[in-house]
């Protein structure tokens, strides 16, 4: 026999083992193990990456080999509530249906049937929806203006393009997703 499983241990206690071979007449030298614990090693490197205006990818590093799962909880100001019960060895979850502009707090708890590890916290994360940048306008002729901009994200449905003639803005076009230019024609000289 080259292995043995020690059961019925107490959670959180550090254990060390040693072993020696024996015969009817002698016992070999003892070999000691490193110290080991049945403690649930909480995940580390809990992080969030905004992937849209309504979702966040939550990631972490799994530091335990015997967990039975993870419980992910979210707090948006009214206290923590469970949003997912995740399987063993999971290291990622996409939280969807979020509200742009709200800051969220997360708590991740590793567990077995009998015990829970210490919670790991991620505070004040929010989704993103960056505005277009570098809007440039160029007069093409006396009745046409060419516009260009940088699209800073990949999830928009489109753009609202508005023009002002000095008395407030009115919508002149709704370029589609990924479009980065527009030509405004028929302008008055």
Explain the overall architecture.
The chain is mostly beta strands and about 190 residues long. About 0% of the residues lie in helices and about 45% in strands. It has strands at about 15, 20, 30, 35, 45-50, 55-60, 70-75, 80-85, 90-95, 105-110, 120-125, 135-140, 145-150, 160-165, 170-175, 180-185. It has a 4-stranded antiparallel sheet with strand order 8-7-10-11, with no helix packed on it. A 3-stranded antiparallel sheet has the order 5-6-9, with no helix packed on it. A hairpin with a 5-residue loop joins strand 5 and strand 6 (about 55-60). The N and C termini lie far apart (about 95 Å).
Cα gyration radius (Å): 30 Å
Q: How far apart, in Å, are the first and last alpha carbons?
A: 95 Å
- From the spread of the alpha carbons, the general shape counts as rod-shaped
Tell me the number of strands.
Answer: 16
| Mean pLDDT metric | 90
Broad structural category: mainly beta
Q: Give the helix level as a range of percent.
A: under 10%
Largest sheet: 4 strands, antiparallel
Give me the number of helical elements.
Answer: 0
H-E order: EEEEEEEEEEEEEEEE
Query: Which runs of at least 5 residues are low in confidence (pLDDT < 50)?
Result: none
Oligomer: single chain
Strand arrangement in the largest pleated sheet? 8-7-10-11
How much of the polypeptide forms β-strand, as a percent range? Answer: 35-45%
């Amino acid at each position: 026999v080259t292995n043995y499983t020690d059961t019925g241990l107490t959670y959180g206690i550090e254990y060390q083992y040693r072993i020696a071979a024996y015969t009817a007449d002698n016992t070999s030298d003892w070999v000691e193990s490193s110290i080991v614990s049945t403690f649930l090693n909480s995940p580390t490197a809990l992080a969030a990456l905004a992937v849209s205006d309504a979702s966040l990818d939550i990631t972490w590093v799994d530091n335990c080999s015997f967990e039975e799962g993870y419980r992910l909880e979210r707090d948006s100001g009214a206290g923590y509530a469970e949003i997912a019960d995740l399987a063993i060895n999971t290291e990622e979850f996409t939280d969807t249906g979020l509200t742009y502009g709200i800051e969220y707090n997360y708590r991740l708890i590793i567990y077995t049937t009998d015990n829970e590890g210490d919670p790991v916290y991620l505070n004040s994360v929010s989704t993103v929806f960056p505005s277009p940048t570098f809007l440039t306008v160029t007069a093409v002729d006396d009745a046409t203006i060419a516009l260009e901009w940088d699209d800073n994200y990949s999830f928009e449905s489109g753009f609202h393009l508005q023009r002002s003639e000095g008395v407030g803005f009115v919508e002149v076009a709704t370029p589609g997703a990924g479009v980065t230019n527009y030509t405004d024609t028929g302008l008055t000289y």
